[in-house]
Amino acid sequence: MTLTKHTISSVTTVRLGYEYLRTVGRNSFLGSHGSGGSFTAYVVETDRGATGWGLPLSDGDPGPLIGRPLAELIDPERGVVDPAAEFLDYPLHDLAARILELPVYAMLGGAGSPRVRCYSGGIYFDDLDGGPDSGPDSGSDAIRANLAQDHAFGFRDFKLKIGRGHRWMDPRAGLRRDIEVTRLTRELYPDAAILVDGNDGFTLNGLFEYVDAVADCGLYWIEEPFPERRPDLQALREHLDGGPIRIADGEYDPDVDHVVALAAEGLVDVALMDVIGHGLTAWRRTMPLLKSEASPHAWGLPLKTLYAAHLSAGLGNTPIIEGVPGPGAYTLEDGHVVLTDDPGFGLELP
């Protein structure tokens, strides 16, 4: 069946809940991230009874879309084609793929594997919050417990938040703790990929000291150590001296053209524009332009991990994605999100 046979008959919203495996603590800038919450999803239905749903990119007015032919809003080959419908990017991709009886990743081209490597994005500064061995002078029992919980959930790779000295600890003590947590993770999980994320909380010299202290830990990437300043990224690239550590950037309020240019210059190895903030249609345009790998930022909702997995399996060039540790939105097996061949994003409304 083709999209031309379908007309939009209704666009409604539904409020859904989500939860993490645990209460997630601080990063270098922000306080506790909580234990879950709720979000609004949009449900789009056609006059032939087809339904798709998903997260919106932003607030939007669905009124003008009612009665419109679906084929005027989304092209399976390109994505959303009408600016008035852009806020429904994910619901429309879900709807179109369901009508075509394809998983979204197949509609995107199937350039990658439906078994997508996925790291835990949930190792925050929980060593600073609660318990008998916590606070600025504590050890890392909370980190040890969080790593074990995420490993039991199915993750095999871990992203560690670093930058404790930016806001929460004395800079020297914070740097020591960052190093301690990194070395602990490598000791406990010798085969894991270790990714680290500074949330723009580092100075150049502080980052160099950290990198040198964990040089034997085999970091997979360094994410957002500081804002995307070309001279600092050039200095970091020189300091890494051609080694295997990737530089990942472009998550926070990105100038996408700037990130694409930095990637072309070899200063960004992994582009991180958010899976919702940038959008699936925009990623379909951006990916062919990148002279780097991609890994769309997915923190916040477990559903975003599912979206990132379809993007990886569909567009390729995304060797690893961010996993939000929480049940219900995706299937995780031995460190990989495993996508089915069910139509759309393969997830029914709860």
TrEMBL record:
UniProt KW Metal-binding keyword: yes
Keyword Plastid carried by entry: no
Superkingdom of the organism of origin: Bacteria
Gene3D superfamilies, A to Z: Enolase-like C-terminal domain, Enolase-like, N-terminal domain
Record key words, sorted: Magnesium, Metal-binding
Cofactor: Mg(2+)
Boundaries of every Mandelate racemase/muconate lactonizing enzyme C-terminal domain copy: 140-243
Pfam families tied to this protein: MR_MLE_C
Protein name (Swiss-Prot/TrEMBL): Mandelate racemase/muconate lactonizing enzyme C-terminal domain-containing protein
Organism: Kribbella karoonensis
